[in-house]
Amino acid sequence: VAALAAASKCPWAFFPAGDPNSGGDGDMYDAAGRIFRALEDKFKGKNVTKRYASMRHGWVTRGAIKEGLFNAGSGEDVQAAVNECVTDIFEFFVRCGLMRRTQAGLP
Predict the structure, then answer these.
(1) Is the pLDDT reported for residue 73 higher than 60?
(2) Is the pLDDT of residue 66 over 70?
(3) What does the DSSP assignment read for the chain?
């Protein structure tokens, strides 16, 4: 896995969910994890990782879906976390030159 990350041609942003010791996304995505460390060796200070420990995997794209359908979370805490994470993603895109701040709706 670290070799695959080391072969990457660009920095990455990771937003893992849950507790890695209780079924959440693996700790390889955290700052001390092997994937993140391999990327940092190549793109020092350009990668991002931020764990959302109280969220479940898939919460950004599958949270607060219509009543009765599978969803990975609902409620004000999920809505706030989705807004925060999407803002973090936009910040990463702006920093990498993939999006302008005005396009992202950022100040």
Answers:
(1) yes
(2) no
(3) -HHHHHT-SS--EE--BS-TTTTSS-GGGSTTSHHHHHHHHHSTTT-EE--BTTSPTTHHHHTTPPTTS--S--SHHHHHHHHHHHHHHHHHHHHTTSS-HHHHT--
Nearest to 39 by CA among 14, 15, 5, 13: 5
Nearest CA-CA partner of 51 in 95, 19, 78, 97: 19
Both tokens assigned to 89: 């993603």
Name residues whose C-beta falls within 8 Å of residue 1's C-beta, 6 or more positions apart in sequence: 28, 34, 35
Backbone angles phi, psi at 91, to 5 degrees: -60, -40
In the predicted model, what is the mean pLDDT of the chain? 89
Sign of the CA dihedral 49, 53, 58, 64? negative
In whole angstroms, give the CA distance from residue 104 to residue 84.
13
Give Cβ neighbours of residue 60 (< 8 Å, ≥ 6 apart): 15, 82, 85, 86
Question: How far out from the chain centre does Cα 13 lie?
Answer: 6
